[in-house]
Amino acid sequence: MADLIESGRNFYATKKYKRALVLFTKAMRSCPCARGVKRDRCMCKDFEKVAVQGGSIFREAMYTCHCDVGRIFSKCDNGYHIQALESRAATFEALGKLDHSMKDAEWILELAPRLPDGYLRVGKIAQLKEQDEYAWKMYTAGIEAHRERSVDSSPKLQQLYDAREPLHRRFFRQDPLSLPAELVTHIFSYLDWCEILLCLQVCKQWMRTLTSPVHGRLWRNMVFPSRGYYRTRSSCLGLLKKMLSWAGEGGFRRIVIPLGLDIIQAELTLLLKASPSLQHLVVSSLEDLSLSSKEKMWNQLRHVTIDEYDPSLHPTGEDIPGRFPYTFLQNAASSLEHLTFAGIPLQWYSSEPLMPRLPRLKSLHIGGWWDDQTPFPIFPLSIAFPQIEQLWVGPDVPNVDPGPAALWRDKWNGVWPHLKVLIIDASEAPGSKNVPNLGLQYLICLNRGNSLLHLLFMDMYPDLGDGTRDIFGNNNDTAPSSDVARYSEFRNLRSVRSNSGMCILPDRARTLLSNSIENRQLTSFDIVFPMPNLDISSLSTGDSRARYLKGYDWFCGTPSINTLGCYHLDFRLFPGNDNDLPLPQFLATFPNLRTLKIDTYNYHYSNDEHEFTSVILAIMSVTRLKTIYTRSFRHNSEALGTVRKAAQFKGVQIITIVYHGPEQWPVPLGS
């Protein structure tokens, strides 16, 4: 057989194709598998039809046979037999007889379905016949038939991968619902329920699969879209009932109703009563709605946010539309951990406020005042919510009333002993945004400040009229709160942020931060330079920005600091030396500083971005920053382009979109 094949190849090389065919045929028929008789090809197999139907080409080659060939002859992986058929198929190909060539290629596949040769030859001829998808399926079938072998175990197996590669991207289409159920759920979880509803229209199979119990998790987040998208009919009770059945036992786990959504009371009641496993509820407006108050069924509800209601209505034993949902919250007290609401009920300003008792509440975001004179008693709040760990007061800061000093000394030592995060947010306060300091000082200094990890002031502009007063008081204060501030310790502060608002004078900052710095806890701090209209002439360091920064010499080189904010910069234009522009050298002293948040006063209003550019370039040249946040460049300005180019070379990211609030609420505390 070897001599016949060799002779045939010689004739093939000289393009004597007919002589070559004769020799290849003789070699093929002399294989021992024929046992001295003529062996014909099995005509029962239809590989192309099987490929179109998505069946197994390997099984077709191995087992499909209804004629005598399969009964008389066995499979054959004789190398010479395969070479003879390969060579004959190549010869027919050279003669342009692709149909004859395909028959020999399929014969190879019939004889040896466990070898890659037949798959390669059939795929090649299919491509010549412009049947690329059939070729891709044939190559794929060959690869799957040898999936237990490594690619480098056979050169022809590697050829299968190489031949399939250019076709794979075009034809590797798969119904995603044929994937494992957990993977299907993960893929469709990136869509909201409105988008998944559209997917149900693809076909009946998709409808049955996506609404089956195995994919119930897809329907458990009922986050309604904005107004104008959801309301397309008079009532959606029927659709909601269907979706609740698809969500499975326990109903929805998350319900979010945005402001302006035209939802009726019957729909809201259905959503709540059919969702005993509800964990997260956001209702942006209760103006014409009420939460169910008769059932005590939500023992997994941990998050509640309510943005709009009428705080002038007194809470009672039954929640009515527009009223603070006292009873609903009380019924969820066994599990509720996070509560957000805007608008403090007027009744809470009384001497005997009716508040729900929430013993497991960990975070509270509360805001809204009646006026800046009416005192809001904070002590009853600590009785109703004794385990608060995170407190966000604002965006309207009420006139927090700590009560008489005697009450503080007698009862406040145990108030909120686990308070770790305090945010004081005056971003929507009216007028000058001056907020009352007295009660806020008490909040900051609870537990002598030792439980506090993160302290954030948002848009706070305390009255600095006497030159030395800030929210922490000063050494000349005689108010009871000054004792609290003076003798607090603050041993565990990790971040103190005041963004572009409150200026904490250097001596007060030292009192606030020194223990946390000594304990290597502090990682983030904001330095806010005094506004030009503020009189700080009494400071021994003088009234210039450079001398103000000099007051922070004690802070230089703090090893635990990785993030600093510098706001209201106003150094001398066109500095002649480091004394005129001390900020870069100041920042260079922090060995682990990686993030800088910086905004200017002078450069911004003088429209001289190039001066600010020189400041940023000087800072990057002496620090190892990774990220700089700034709003002091105009969008796509030439100066910003210069900074970005230099930053890219230094491996620094420039971010011009800055949000001064917490990135996430509740704040992740970590270890």
UniProtKB/TrEMBL annotation:
<dbReference type="Pfam" id="PF12937">
    <property type="entry name" value="F-box-like"/>
</dbReference>
<protein>
    <recommendedName>
        <fullName>F-box domain-containing protein</fullName>
    </recommendedName>
</protein>
<dbReference type="InterPro" id="IPR036047">
    <property type="entry name" value="F-box-like_dom_sf"/>
</dbReference>
<feature type="domain" description="F-box">
    <location>
        <begin position="173"/>
        <end position="222"/>
    </location>
</feature>
<dbReference type="InterPro" id="IPR032675">
    <property type="entry name" value="LRR_dom_sf"/>
</dbReference>
<dbReference type="InterPro" id="IPR001810">
    <property type="entry name" value="F-box_dom"/>
</dbReference>
<dbReference type="InterPro" id="IPR011990">
    <property type="entry name" value="TPR-like_helical_dom_sf"/>
</dbReference>
